[in-house]
Design goal:
This protein has a 5-stranded antiparallel β-sheet, with helices on one face. The protein is about 40% helix and about 10% strand. By secondary structure, it is α+β, with helices and mostly antiparallel strands. The longest helix is centred in the first third of the chain and has 16 residues. The protein has a domain of about 90 residues: RNA-binding S4 domain (Structural Genomics Hypothetical 15.5 Kd Protein In mrcA-pckA Intergenic Region, Chain A, Roll), CATH 3.10.290. The protein is globular, with a radius of gyration of 18 Å.
């Protein structure tokens, strides 16, 4: 999920302050660098601080690299899968569509954006929701994006259906973030 132009401007500030005679900007502290990276990750997935902390704790308890596990856990959320599959234009729209009850997981209605999918589970748009304009737009492939499809997802846009094939690897996830800094932030 690439950053918007406005977001890029915010994260890449000029080294001088606004105005003609502004003072020099303060040097960014190590804490600030890690905090901004954590906030960047949090906003890309549109999750609360408590949800991110819980995901970090679970990733930390598991095996493997904590940062990669954290990204994989966040990527398996229902709203993230809906967005990556091209069934929603943004993570915000995906969260709203899920919470309004438009999706089923393995045939059962799920309305929690934080629902964590397991490999092999099928996400589909409910039969009664298929005529809603966002899904008619998604069926044409308008939300699919320019890049290649996600190798960990099997997507059938005409059927408005997606299957999580396996856990996503870090290099397959288009998140702009240095997850090591997030791990360092929470490990302090």
């Amino acid at each position: 999920m690439p950053l918007t132009r406005k977001c890029v401007k915010y994260f890449e500030r000029r080294p001088f302050p606004p105005g003609v005679h502004g003072r020099q900007r303060r040097k960014t502290s190590d804490y600030q660098v890690r905090l901004l990276e954590k906030q960047r990750l949090r906003h890309q997935y549109n999750v609360s601080e408590a949800q991110l902390r819980r995901a970090f704790d679970e990733a930390h308890r598991g095996t493997g690299k904590t940062g990669e596990s954290l990204i994989a856990l966040l990527e398996r959320r229902l709203d993230a899968v809906v967005h990556r599959a091209g069934l929603a234009r943004s993570i915000y729209q995906a969260r709203q569509l899920v919470s309004h009850g438009h999706f089923t997981v393995d045939g059962r209605k799920v309305d929690r954006p934080s629902y964590r999918l397991r490999p092999g589970q099928v996400v589909a748009v409910r039969e009664r929701s298929r005529q809603v304009p966002p899904f008619q737009l998604a069926a044409t492939g308008a939300n699919a994006g320019d890049g290649p499809g996600r190798p960990y997802l099997s997507v059938a846009l005409t059927d408005l259906r997606a299957t999580l094939l396996r856990e996503p690897a870090r290099h397959e996830v288009p998140v702009v973030c240095d997850e090591q800094l997030v791990v360092e932030f929470y490990s302090r």
